[in-house]
Amino acid sequence: MSKHLAVRRDGSTVELPATLPEAHKVILSLLDVIDDLRAEVVILKAQVAALKEEVADLKEQLNQHSGNSSKPPSQDSPGQRDKRPGKPPTGNKKGAQPGHRKHSRMMADEAAVDGMKHYYPDGQCACGGDIALEAEPRLRHQVFDLPEVKYTVTEHRVYAGCCTRCGKHCQGGLPDDVPKGQMGPGLIAGIGLLNGGHRLSTRAVQSWLVEQWGLRFSLGAINESQEKLAEWLKAPHADIGVAVRASAVVHADETTHYRYSAEQGLERHWLWALTAGPAVYFRTHYSRGKRAAGSLLEGFDGVLVTDRLGSYNCHPQERRQVCLAHVIRNLTAMSQRKGESGRLGKRLVRLLRLVFRVEHGWRQGRYDENRYRHRLDQLQSAFHQGIAQGSEWTSCKKTMNQCRQLLRDEPMLWTFRRYPDVPLTNNAAERAVRPYVIWRKTSFFSQSARGDRFRERILSVTESCKRLGVMAYAFLRKVCEQGIQNQPVTVRLPFQNSIPALS
User: Fold this and answer.
1) Is 349 helix (H, G, I), strand (E, B) or coil?
2) What is the structure's pLDDT at 479?
């Protein structure tokens, strides 16, 4: 029997079945192979799609920066910092703008002047005439200087003796107002201010004491003074918390706090911050969860302004405003995707930026109340339509999930419409946290719960003093004077009538 050969596309030949049963058998075998290949193609297509999605996610993560995510600007790479968009030119001239408060040289009252020198013109004019002096000086020029750095030392001598009649040993004692340690109230207050107010590490404070004053104290002695101050600040710190929680509008934020111990090593805790008006309240906690947020906000029933952290869901949704600046950054990441996701992201970002523009114009008086409300109605409706549309897309799961989350949080985006005094952003809390972030870079971590207490209390007091216009050193010194004398600390910050009520 002759062989039946077929020529393939590549020029090679293949032997064909000689009989019909053989051909039928080959066809069935080939159909099985085709089914297997089809199944394999389906699997490979699914793997390719999953890998494409993974690559897109990784690329998006690599492209994350402070402008399109919750990352702080300090974590941007040098290349990302170079690409940050600058502020658009305003066309205004350099220098102070109209309405800017004038800054002039500081002038001390005459009663506070330590020395005064007078300079008069010559007795006669160049023409030979006499000079008639004016009653008041034409120019007052004051020079401020620091006195020579010097500390004071008070030595307390305690004597003892024996009774000449019964031989009993008798010894004098130190009064209650004499510190048990070697540091007086001014020194303890100064160390606390250098730490919490000027964000110096303990070693830097130690070095400064040697350089400026010639005082040599061990790190242990400085830490001991911090512990004392933390205990004395317990009551003022609690009062700041009460003042904040009694406010109508409170901003909240949190940042990483580290504690080191030989047993546990380096542990990540959290420093929580609440701010309202001039009051800034800090507290450390081992958790970033709902329980920690609920404990921090216990007793507060006003409007809470935060980012989108789920821990703040312990507060009623109808009295919570989500920071729109955070939402814009999240949507900016969406706008950088390809296709429909990118177009939707750009539209949503544009809508929220228009919200800022309209709100700013209303506060400046460019919009009346009716026009302001009508324009916000339009923007809110368009934003809702956009995220509702995106929540139904299956082509980009990340965009779909993002829109569904926004739908869930949507009522909290527009709380400011019911309360005119509620801002659109959480910038107040972020500014309050920033000093600690700088301090953390220099002092790294605490080493005990007592160190945590010192940080949260000294930060609360110094930041609140700054906003109230109170001299922090003078306040801390009064606290230390009462604490050293074992008296109840009655010094308080003047929060009365300083925190506005919600209109």
Assistant:
1) helix
2) 94
